Prior knowledge:
Radius of gyration: 25 Å
Oligomer: single chain
CATH topology of the largest domain: Hypothetical protein af1432
Number of helices: 15
Structural class: alpha/beta
Distance between the termini: 68 Å
Amino acid sequence: MFDPMRRRATVLIADDEEGYRGLFAQLLTGQGYNVLSAKDGEEALEVIASNAIDLVLLDVMMPRKTGFATCLALKADPKTRLIPVVLVTGLNSADDRVHGAMCGADDFLGKPVNRQELLARVNSLVRMKGFTDELENAEIVLGSLALSIEAKDPYTEGHCERLSTYAVALAKRLKLSEEWCVALRRGGTVHDIGKIGVPESILIKPGPLTEEEWKIMKQHPAIGERICAPLKSFGLVLPIIRHHHERLDGSGYPDGLKGDEIPLAARILQTVDIFDAVTTSRPYHQARSAREALVLLREEAKRGWRDGALVDEFEAVLDPSRIPFH
């Protein structure tokens, strides 16, 4: 049966034996795949760097760079870590398979290769890659939408990028997992995406908002959560979006959460969000220094609004050479 996703897929075959490269290429092109080849691991990495690859069939025992080393390099690079890698090898010991798994391999095939098994494994992994690409594309669309909202207000240029940088730096300072660092990077980008539901006249109003305008503005965290909710990969991001305007004493919005009810990641984002807002010029105030912003955050912590411990940790990660403390 015709499979449009599979026909678009490109498979890289990396093997130092020409016979295997030819055999695999014949099988896969016959099934509608685009096929590229490499003689060793170094060449494979060069091919991947300049082509959109959907799956790699990687021999283990190759000159210059082994399949294990090549797989490890691919999985260590954020640009290539989601490409499925199948290690094709005559090494069948448990230790070799454990080594391959530790290098990040997604599957294994033993030599000599069973043709039907090869096609079944390739087809399955390429389908999974297609689903991953769809999720990535959806995230890109959300990010672009968030940046388009930012672009409406010249005073907030670069705000999302700075928030992502600050939030991830603070998360690393707190030794949070890579998973949470990714969530905070995404949260920094899309935290205000719900402002798409707020009239532009309110978003860029130079003076104080009326009570009715504030009611509308306070809806944006919940709107943003609803926009991003269909993305399963955003599970950790949703609480960041919804709760980055809460206060520890319960006077924040939209849910009036108190203390530890507010997720740590949301408290991290609100800390860096306030810092960035204070240190950049807005229609209603001139930019203050980093030192003044930290003083303000500590004052809000004394009022019971912010997490004072996070403010201290954030000061420790600030680079005085980039953010003058005057």
